[in-house]
Amino acid sequence: MTLAALMTSFVMQYGTNYTRPSVSGDALNLLNAGNGAATGFNTPTSPVWGNSSAHKAADAIATIIDLVAQKGSQATGLPTAANRSDVARYLAESSERADPDSDLIRAQVDETLGFVKEADDPSLFAAIRAGTVKIVHAADLGLVYERRVEHFFTEDGRYTGGKATYTEQPGFNEAMMVTGEDGRLYDRATGDRAGRMQVSGIPFYLTWTPGAGDAAGQS
Q: How far apart are the first and last CA of the chain?
């Protein structure tokens, strides 16, 4: 028996062209017994953060539950609820990772910024600690992107691995930022320092007011 015959998967696609994540794949069949409440989803909170509001984890989970409900409960011989837990868990986690406003993504952005050292960029380092870095979902500023995540499971619902791809329409960086004489990036519109970061396949645009660290970095 081939590996493909032993495996099933679900695919989640999200980004600028999706009002809410698109979910497809044979693994959804593992969840078609009972109603959505039986899959173990807990709707995550979606605090307002920056200007981002295009995607909500709650909407993504609603989409999954809708798809499961549409399949009905006609099939027999499906895995037990306990063996479906991996599929449900990865669907829920992928939904939250598709939401730029989710607690998970916000925490990951904060964690990533926490790794910035003063030697990397004195001005950014100071702005992070002062809490003055402005973080905006890049899609809200015109970036067109798509993220595709695929997770694989055995026929009884146990997770075996996954893969992800990311694509974006070129031209965003050039439209938003300019390189200064000091070699650093600046926001074209405001003159503030600027940069990009990506967390779990979600792109963000960062700006902060130049400070003493910039002058120090030029000396």
A: 66
